[in-house]
Amino acid sequence: MNDFKKEVLEGLSKKNKSLSSKYFYDSEGSRIFQEIMDMPEYYLPKAEMEIIRNQSEYIAEKIRKKELDVIELGAGDGRKTVHFLEVLSSKVTQLTYFPLDIDESILRENENLVNNQVPTIRVKPMKGDYFLTLSQIRQRNIPRVILFAGSNIGNFPDSKASEFLEMIKKEMKPGDYFLLGADLKKHPKMILDAYSDAKGITARFNLNLLKRINRELSADFDLSAFEHYATYHPMTGAAESFLVSLKKQTVTIGTEKIEFGLHEVIKTEISQKYDQEKLIDLAEGSGLKWDSAYSDTQSLFSWVLFKR
Fold first, then answer.
1. Helices in 66-103 by DSSP H: which ranges?
2. What pLDDT, on a 0 to 100 scale, did the predictor assign at position 191?
3. Residue 184: beta bridge partners?
4. pLDDT of residue 157
5. Residue 48, burial from CB neighbour count under 10 angstroms (0-12, 13-18, 19+)
6. DSSP codes, 11-32
7. pLDDT-flagged residues of the chain (< 70)
8. I want to staple 203 with a disulfide (CB 3.0 to 4.6 A). Which of 208, 228, 256, 307 is the partner?
9. pTM value?
C-alpha cells in the first residue's frame, strides 16, 4: 500500500476525519492554487513580495558574510526569491543557492531563472523531501541561512511547528540564520475571504483532493455530495478548511468502505496565523534566538529572522 492510500484510509477511519493538505498539489491542484494566488482576496503573495522588494536590503545587511549558503525549503520556481538573492549577491563574495523541492521540473525553472537574472550565484538544485535533502549538505563548512518563505509553517499544528524548528536548529551551526515567512493575525473577515472566496476557487481547490483520491485510489467520491467550508478563530489564529458531507453516504476506496453521516466533516487544512508573541514563544521553545522581523506596510505578513 502506498503512503497516499495508507494516510487517506487512516485519516478517514478516525472519529474526527481528516486528510493531509500535502496531497492538495497534484497537477490540477497546483493549477488551481495558482488561481488562488491571483485572487484579489488572497492578500499573502502581494504582502510577501512587498517585504522582499522593500526589506531585502536590511535583511541582507544582517546576514552578509564573505561566503554564504542560502538553502530554500520548498523553493518552487524561484520567482519570489530571485530579487532577494540579487540584493544579497551584491554583499556576498561567494553565494551558493540550494533550492530544495520535490518537483524536478519546477527546480529546472528555478535554476534557469536565477542563472539568467543573477549569474554570479552558484545554483545547486536538490530534488526530494527537504527533511531528507537537508542532511545531504549538512557537512558544508560555510555559513548558511535557511529560508522557509510563504506561510507553510502555518500548516503545522503547534507541536509539529516546534518539532520542525528543532529540526532546523540541528541543521544550523552557531551564527547561522533561519529566515521564516509567517502569516500574521488580522481582521477575521479578510482571512475568511481568502479561504472562501466569492468565485469558489478555494472550494474547487479543496474538492480537487477528493477528485485526486477518486483517480489515484479507485474511489467513488461524489463531489456534489460534499461542500467546502472554512473557519477562522481570531483568538487562536487558526484558519481551518473542511469538506462537509451533505448526506448520509458510503464511499468506496479500493476495497475499503468509509461511512459518512449527514453533515459530518473532513478536516483538510489548518493555516495558523501568528502574532509576535507566539512567534517568539515558538522560537524560544525550539532553542532559536529571535533576531528581527520585517513586515509589509499593512502588517499582513512577516519575514522573521532567527539565529542560532
1. 82-89
2. 97
3. 274
4. 80
5. buried
6. HHHSSS-B--GGGG-SHHHHHH
7. 1
8. 228
9. 0.89
**Nearest-angstrom CA–CA distance, 232 and 60:** 35
CATH homologous superfamily, domain 44-186+274-307: Vaccinia Virus protein VP39 (3.40.50.150)
Nearest Cα residue to 88 out of 111, 106, 68, 105: 68
Res 27: pLDDT? 85
What is the distance between the alpha carbons of residues 2 and 104, in angstroms, rounded to a whole number? 21
Looking at this protein, which amino acid is placed at residue 92? V
Return the residue matching grid coordinates 502588517: 299
State pLDDT tens for residues 55-75. 999 999 999 999 999 999 989
What are 213's three cell numbers?
Answer: 483520491
Q: So where are the chain's domains? A: 3-41+189-272, 44-186+274-307
Q: Check residue 189 and give its pLDDT.
A: 97
123 grid coordinates: 545554483
269: left (phi over 0), alpha (psi -120 to 50) or beta: beta
C-alpha cell at 72: 530554500
Per-residue model confidence as pLDDT tens digits over 181-204 = 999 999 999 999 999 999 999 999
Classified as helix, coil or strand, 254 is coil
Distance CA(164)–CA(306), nearest Å, equals 14
Please say whether the beta carbons of 123 and 111 come within 8 A.
Answer: yes
Q: What is the DSSP letter of 142?
A: S
